[in-house]
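queue> pop job 88
queue> type: inverse folding (structure -> sequence)
queue> payload:
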């Protein structure tokens, strides 16, 4: 049978004890019984910030992935979040255009710094330890510079262009049917007459001021030679050079002719 108390005020008998109703103690206008109010007794959205204790929500109370970007404090465009020596989060200041994020070592946050100029290219210290490949899989050239000046350019067709490398070279025979044994940057040769051969380049020279170095054995077989053999470059053009081979001032088709071209 339900019981009812039909009074407007219930006063405590002694000020030290308060009033107990169904096991719940009320004293000084407050609920004095610990853990007596559970979540079912709260009205939805009834607890505001003013009724939350400082530091009342710890990490364990936050669900994984619950904090969105919108809930993070605002920062500076381009900054990166890292950690300092104490393990606390810190913002890495935005670097300048062209700078790269660089490690400062253990215990220090990274920083944006300019790319170091120059330096040695090495693999594994003083020795490679294995074959290495430098280059790309496309058709662009690879240039090597020192002191800001290009010294060597390697093209995708295998040519290495510099002031210290040959722009073209050839080893051929002029006996019977003129034929190329081996060559570089030479597209073809033409036998115009006895002792006269035109060498055509695959890629033109920059000018006609190149240097031609040549020799021949002055004999009709490669295993012998004779005195009086001379060779002369003639009619140099950007696309070809004519070679004249003689023995004792007479035109002669030699079995072994070598020509090397240096220049731009």
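queue> result:
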């Amino acid at each position: 049978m339900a019981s009812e108390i039909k009074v407007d005020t219930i006063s405590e008998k002694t000020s030290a004890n308060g009033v107990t109703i169904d096991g719940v103690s009320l004293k000084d206008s407050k609920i004095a019984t610990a853990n007596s109010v559970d979540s079912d007794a709260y009205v939805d959205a009834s607890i505001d910030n003013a009724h939350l204790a400082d530091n009342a929500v710890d990490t364990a109370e936050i669900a994984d992935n619950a904090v969105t970007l919108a809930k993070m404090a605002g920062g500076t465009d381009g900054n990166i979040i890292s950690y300092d020596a104490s393990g606390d989060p810190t913002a890495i200041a935005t670097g300048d255009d062209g700078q790269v994020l660089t490690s400062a070592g253990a215990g220090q946050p990274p920083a944006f710094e300019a790319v170091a100029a120059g330096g040695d290219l090495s693999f594994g210290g003083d020795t490679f330890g294995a074959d290495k490949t430098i280059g790309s899989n496309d058709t662009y050239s690879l240039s090597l510079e020192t002191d800001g000046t290009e010294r060597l350019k390697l093209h995708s067709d295998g040519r290495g262009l510099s002031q210290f490398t040959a722009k073209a070279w050839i080893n051929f025979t002029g006996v019977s049917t003129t034929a190329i044994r081996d060559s570089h940057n030479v597209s073809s040769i033409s036998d115009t007459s006895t002792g006269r051969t035109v060498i055509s380049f695959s890629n033109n020279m920059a000018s006609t001021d190149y240097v031609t170095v040549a020799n021949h054995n002055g004999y009709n077989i490669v295993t012998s030679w004779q005195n009086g053999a001379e060779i002369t470059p003639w009619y140099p053009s950007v696309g070809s050079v004519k070679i004249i081979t003689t023995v004792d001032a007479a035109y002669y088709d030699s079995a072994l002719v070598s020509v090397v071209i240096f220049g731009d």
